[in-house]
């Protein structure tokens, strides 16, 4: 059994509880910018900065970090979006973290979880997310299509995550407009930025906001994926462990104007 299988099994055990309780959060209603528009109009590599306490591959990363303080630093440093891990059993996150961050910042907020059911989208929306993640590897085609449609109906943007060419085909088939390639293989934990290169070469010439996720540790990695065509990056661990969050984040916002007009 892979780690992704284990996480999905855990999610299934949590569904009855979510389905039996109405999501109640004190959410401040905000008109946030569109992540898609931000990515498509940017002259610099856009950073989706993640609140990530722990992970299956690394164990505890930064359990003491206060989510709102971290998110405010991300926003002040010019992050395009804040990703908040809400998965509890493996990442030590929560919807409460998401809700607190969403109330504190004005930029897009991504609910980073392993979504397999509409009720999780209801919780994400109620807690204040403006973007949700759908992981192709965790879903059948039928689930992917219906969850994408459900989130879109709820006025949420959707980041559709792929890892290989086959998954990219499935993401394109449902009309995904924000596609992220996860450089981490969620079945083996292997991380390679060449996944971004491989997927970038397969993107059709349509206006897709293409981002690179995981394993981006500093400006050299950011430059590598920008050269491959990424408009944005999703960064967790490197920012969570940084002694100077703002400086580390700003160093990733590299100029991409030379690439504007290519398949980006
Ligand atoms: O991070 C993990 O160990 C992990 C394991 C299994 C499934 C998902 C996992 N991570 C989720 C993510 O996609 C990352 O948190 C995100 O892309 C940021 O990655 P990083 O910058 O490498 O922390």
Automatic annotation (TrEMBL):
Reaction catalysis annotation: 1-(2-carboxyphenylamino)-1-deoxy-D-ribulose 5-phosphate + H(+) = (1S,2R)-1-C-(indol-3-yl)glycerol 3-phosphate + CO2 + H2O
Task: Write down the EC number.
Answer: 4.1.1.48
Source domain of life is: Bacteria
* Keywords annotated in UniProt: Amino-acid biosynthesis, Aromatic amino acid biosynthesis, Decarboxylase, Lyase, Tryptophan biosynthesis
- Residues spanning the signal sequence: none
What Pfam families has UniProt attached to this entry?
Answer: IGPS
For the Indole-3-glycerol phosphate synthase domain, which residue ranges apply? 4-252
GO terms for biological process, alphabetical: L-tryptophan biosynthetic process
CDD domains linked: IGPS (cd00331)
Look up the record and name the pathway of this protein: Amino-acid biosynthesis; L-tryptophan biosynthesis; L-tryptophan from chorismate: step 4/5
GO molecular function term, any single one: phosphoribosylanthranilate isomerase activity
Q: Which family does it belong to?
A: Belongs to the TrpC family.
Name the record gives this protein: Indole-3-glycerol phosphate synthase
This protein's species is Solibacillus isronensis B3W22
**What does the organism's lineage look like at the top?**
Bacteria, Bacillati, Bacillota, Bacilli, Bacillales
Encoding gene, per UniProt annotation: trpC
């Amino acid at each position: 059994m892979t780690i992704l299988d284990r996480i999905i099994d855990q999610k299934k055990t949590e569904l009855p509880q979510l389905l039996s309780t109405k999501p109640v959060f004190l959410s401040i209603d905000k008109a946030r910018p569109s992540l898609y528009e931000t990515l498509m109009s940017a002259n610099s590599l856009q950073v989706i900065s993640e609140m990530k306490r722990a992970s299956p591959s690394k164990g505890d990363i930064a359990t003491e970090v206060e989510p709102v303080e971290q998110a405010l630093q991300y926003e002040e440093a010019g992050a395009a979006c804040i990703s908040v891990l809400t998965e509890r059993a493996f990442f030590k996150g929560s919807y409460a973290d998401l809700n607190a961050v969403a109330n504190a910042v004005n930029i897009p907020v991504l609910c980073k979880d392993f979504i397999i059911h509409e009720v999780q989208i209801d919780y994400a929306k109620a807690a204040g997310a403006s973007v949700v993640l759908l992981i192709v590897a965790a879903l059948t085609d039928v689930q992917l299509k219906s969850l994408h449609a459900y989130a879109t109906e709820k006025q949420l943007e959707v980041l559709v995550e792929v890892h290989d060419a086959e998954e990219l085909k499935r993401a394109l088939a449902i009309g995904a407009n924000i596609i992220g390639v996860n450089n981490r293989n969620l079945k083996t934990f292997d991380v390679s930025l060449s996944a971004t290169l491989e997927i970038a070469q397969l993107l059709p010439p349509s206006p897709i906001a293409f981002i690179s996720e995981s394993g981006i540790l500093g400006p050299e990695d950011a430059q590598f994926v920008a050269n491959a065509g990424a408009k944005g990056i999703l960064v967790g661990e490197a920012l969570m462990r940084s002694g100077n969050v703002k400086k580390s984040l700003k160093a990733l916002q590299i100029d991409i104007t030379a690439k504007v007009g290519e398949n980006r």
